[in-house]
Amino acid sequence: MTEKIIIRQATLADKPALAVFLAAAYEGRHQYKFPRRWEWAFQHNPFLQGEGLPIWIAVTADGGIVGQSAALVEPLIIHGREYRVGWGVDFHVLEAYRGRGLGTQLQAANNAAHEIFMSLSMTEGAASIKAALGLQPLPAVPVFTKIVNHDPASVLDTLHTRFPRVPTSSLKFIAAPLAQFLTRRDAGFALRQAQGAPRGEPVEPLIKPMEAFSGEFDALWERLSPKFTALIRRDAAYLTWKFRQQPHMAHEIFAARQADALCGYLILRRARPPERNAGIICDLFADPEDDATIGTLLHHAVLHLREAGVTYITAASSVPAYQIALRALGFKHTKSATPLIRAGVVDVPQEGWLLGKGDHDWDQYPLA
Questions:
Q1: Distance CA 79, CA 84 (A)
Q2: Cα–Cα distance, 204 to 193 (Å, whole number)
Q3: Angle made by CA atoms 94, 55, 248, in degrees to the nearest 5
Q4: 3-state secondary structure the chain
Q5: Is the Cα torsion angle 256, 258, 260, 263 positive or negative in sign?
Q6: Predicted confidence (pLDDT) at residue 203 exceeds the cutoff of 90
Q7: What percent of the chain has pLDDT over 70?
Q8: C-alpha dihedral over 26, 106, 141, 266, to 10 degrees?
Q9: What is the pLDDT of residues 267-313, one digit of tens each?
Q10: How many CB atoms lie within 10 A of CB 139?
Q11: Are 171 and 133 a contacting pair, CB within 8 Å?
Q12: Quick one: fold of 5-134?
């Protein structure tokens, strides 16, 4: 006889059992899921509405949790009106309980609980289930990568691939100087591009680091948000919660100003062990028609992260103007992510989205 398992919404009373489940589901990295990130995302999230946690669980007769589908709830603006979106996150069914349709049931319950349900970064299995539940694809979001520091180990791996018959001892002899040459070459290329790039009007903005999101970020949001058809609300309250209060993260904020007025911002993160040595452009917010601000912010990101010693920088954007600026700085389109959405409460636009690495849980720690 098959063990009876029920699907239901989690409550705070389930917190101890969820801790046991997450330790089994995310062995080796569960400490980054619980308790600090869990409490930030699901217990103290200021955008939650209604009772209960935004987590749907599969529970055995003895009270054990064997699967879950959670949602990161955020404010989403579409055509100027605000909704609540549930981003599908932390979907997992323990291996011993797979093949019983629990994953589909959990995703269905999560989907039904939100006026808008979305995913941007997901496994193929999760994408298949969401598509079967009626979520529709949006245009793919391209991911860009730029190598800024060539470390000898990476160069040695490349040499092994290209010259498999050459002894390792010989390849090691040239790996270090070749890495230094490639790093100097790329730095010089970026500098020549910046010096030769046309200057937009008004004059190039000034970039300065910021420790907090002040009220001027609210004014920037009010001014720039109409430039996009659909995007997560990016006022000071949201930005503080997402990029200052999120556990395990070390985001850096850079503000762009022209004539002392805020005209855009950049949020970066340098990955830390156990992550790869990467720099992430998490969020860029500037007028899509302001080439000077976009280009200056991204050029600053490259210089800052190169000096920080990262091996490569990764970014993603659905905004054509941002994509053009990334390519101009030598970023290569390396892959894409296809967002999925179900929104019965509003007509879903196909263009005008602002999506990037800071959306969904695409930038969670540790970087997958």
A1: 14
A2: 15
A3: 85
A4: CCCCEEEEECCHHHHHHHHHHHHHHCCCCHHHCCCHHHHHHHHCCCCCCCCCCCEEEEEECCCCEEEEEEEEEEEEEECCEEEEEEEEEEEEECHHHCCCCHHHHHHHHHHHCCCEEEECCCCHHHHHHHHHCCCEECCCEEEEEEECCCCHHHHHHHHHHHCCCCCHHHHHHHHHHHHHHHHHHHHHHHHHHHHHCCCCCCCCCEEEEECCCCHHHHHHHHHHHHHCCEEECCCHHHHHHHHCCCCCCCEEEEEEEECCEEEEEEEEEECCCCCCCEEEEEEEEECCCCHHHHHHHHHHHHHHHHHCCCCEEEEEECCHHHHHHHHHCCCEEEEEECCEEECCCCCCCCCCECCECCCCCCCCCCCC
A5: negative
A6: no
A7: 91
A8: -60
A9: 999 999 999 899 999 999 999 999 999 999 999 999 999 999 999 99
A10: 13
A11: no
A12: Aminopeptidase (3.40.630)
User: CATH 3.40.630.30 spans which residues of the chain?
Assistant: 5-134, 142-338
- The amino acid that residue 14 corresponds to is D
Selected from 1.10.3720.10, 3.20.20.10, 3.40.630.30, 3.40.30.10, the CATH number assigned to the domain covering 142-338 reads 3.40.630.30
Specify the amino acid at residue 95.
E
Nearest partner of 22 among 37, 43, 4, 3, judged by Cα: 37
In angstroms, the CA 168 to CA 198 distance is 45
- pLDDT class for 202, splitting at 50, 70, 90? very low
pLDDT tens-digit profile of 174-198?
Answer: 878 876 777 676 666 555 554 444 4
- The number of beta carbons lying within 10 Å of the beta carbon of residue 234 is 24
How high is the pLDDT of residue 261? 95
pTM: 0.88
- Whether the Cβ atoms of residue 313 and residue 282 lie closer than 8 Å to each other: no
Mean pLDDT (the chain) is 91
Burial of 219 (0-12, 13-18, 19+ CB in 10 A): middle
Torsion sign over Cα 145, 151, 153, 158: positive
Q: Which residues contact 157 (CB under 8 A, 6 or more apart)?
A: none
